[in-house]
TrEMBL record:
It holds the Pfam family HTH_1. GO terms for molecular function: DNA-binding transcription factor activity; sequence-specific DNA binding. This is HTH lysR-type domain-containing protein. PROSITE patterns: HTH_LYSR. It comes from Pseudovibrio exalbescens.
């Protein structure tokens, strides 16, 4: 096939032979074998010229395209084999706000390790190989996984300065029920992540009126943060995801954390128990743990 494609492109057995580093006789023999296999004539052979037949003219460009595609496929396969791929799953907002900037630095140190990010609030099944490493936000109770704390998971009640100026400052958690609360829909584990009902209960506030209070609900924490920045209401968010907004002053804490007396949550890095893993997975695991604490300062 390569002999036919080269001969058709050059209109010459000799030039095709030069390109493929064989003799013109070898090119001629390979073309005859192809013609014999399909019982067709691909060339009209003349003394000083080589012309494609009608079938040859139809087949030649298709053969060129097929060989180009084959070469490209071989390159992709070879290139992918040489890469060391890891799949890392983490909550959506945490992936966007904290993880992505960290991975830029990781890539500078370990360019040979490439990472697929599954940014989702759903709990991915690491035990069955859906990811190599996971980062989870919660209480650390993951009995089917090897668990190591990654970083402190403090969370805050926040609002924009304009919102507080317009509606007045809040002095007690009970006053939250008088304002618009921004809810995040934690699809993966709603009972094991911060939510308004949990926070109000921990502050001794009856939650019977929570359902009747004004609220907006969002599918991820990033949307809740953006809504709070625009002054839409008060959000309950993780420090790791909102530290830049607090530092810039776009958001402020409504209460000091000590006033909340709320349940503690942290970020954990998890892997399947007894997973053989790879050297690259171990490198990423150690690197994330090493850089996590300093990144929150």
């Amino acid at each position: 096939m390569r002999a036919f494609e080269a001969a058709a492109r050059h209109s010459s057995f000799k030039l095709a032979a030069d390109e493929l580093n064989v003799t013109p006789a070898a090119i001629s023999q390979q073309v005859r074998s192809l013609e014999g296999f399909y019982d067709v004539k691909l060339f009209v052979r003349q003394t000083r010229a080589l012309e494609l037949t009608r079938i040859g003219k139809l087949a030649a460009p298709l053969m060129s395209e097929a060989l180009d595609n084959f070469a490209e496929a071989c390159f992709v396969i070879k290139n992918d084999i040489q890469r060391d791929w890891l799949t890392l799953t983490a909550p959506f907002t945490f992936s966007m706000k904290w993880l992505m900037p960290q991975l830029e630095r990781f890539n500078e140190e370990y360019p040979q390790i490439e990472i697929r990010i599954n940014a989702t609030d759903d709990l991915i099944d690491l035990a069955h190989g859906e990811a190599d490493i996971g980062i989870r936000y919660g209480d650390g109770n993951y009995p089917d996984l090897d668990v190591q704390k990654l970083m402190d998971g403090a969370y805050h009640v926040v609002a924009s300065p304009d919102f507080l100026q317009k509606h007045g400052g809040l002095k007690r958690p009970a006053e939250l029920l008088n304002h618009t609360l921004l809810h995040t829909d934690w699809r993966g584990s709603p009972d094991f992540v911060p939510n308004w009902e949990m926070l109000l209960k921990s502050a001794g506030v009856p939650v019977s009126d929570l359902a009747a209070s004004k609220a907006h609900k969002f599918s991820n924490e990033m949307m809740s943060i953006d809504a709070a920045v625009t002054g839409l209401g008060i959000a309950l968010v993780s420090h790791a995801n909102v530290k830049d907004e607090l530092k810039s002053g776009r958001l402020v804490k409504v209460f000091e954390d000590s006033a909340l007396n709320a349940k503690k949550f942290d970020y954990y890095i998890v892997r399947a128990k007894d997973a053989a893993g790879s050297k690259s997975a171990a490198i990423l695991h150690s690197w994330l743990c090493e850089h996590a604490t300093n990144s929150l300062e």
